[in-house]
Specification:
Blueprint (H helix, E strand, L loop, with lengths): L6 E9 L15 E11 L5 E4 L9 E5 L4 E4 L8 E10 L2 E8 L2 E8 L5 E2 L1
Antiparallel strand pairs: 1-2, 2-3, 2-4, 4-5, 5-6, 6-7, 7-8, 8-9
Length: about 120
């Protein structure tokens, strides 16, 4: 029996409130993020660029660290709510472990800038 594994890589730009620009980001405030690039990879190793809509990823996301949720923005018109299962801190980064439906994924955010790290 073979199992198909699909990997979706998304490049996301996150922004934080201006008053935090000079301070280190610690997850105490929410972030607004935009998906700018999505790459879809199959278990055979073939990868190709795709659109966020094709990969079923909202184009804009809000990360609420206090509630441990990621939601699509109201402007996006989607009602997605993704649970953050765990938040880990290591080497100046915040690692979010998330799951939705039958897939799991991670997001790594720089604590210095608030930007996602690849």
């Amino acid at each position: 029996m073979s199992k198909t594994v699909t990997v979706i890589l998304a490049v996301i730009i996150c922004m934080m409130p201006m008053q935090l620009a000079a301070d280190q980001f610690d997850g105490s405030v929410s972030l607004l993020c935009a998906v700018i690039k999505v790459v879809w990879c199959s278990d055979s190793g073939d990868c190709y660029p795709t659109k966020a809509e094709v990969a079923n990823i909202p184009r804009f996301l809000k990360i609420n660290f206090k509630k441990k949720i990621i939601t699509a923005t109201e402007e996006d018109g989607r009602k997605d709510v993704i649970q953050i299962k765990n938040i880990e801190h290591a080497n100046g980064k915040m690692i979010l472990l998330c799951s939705e439906s039958s897939r799991g994924w991670t997001m790594v955010i720089s604590k210095e800038t608030g930007h996602e790290q690849i």
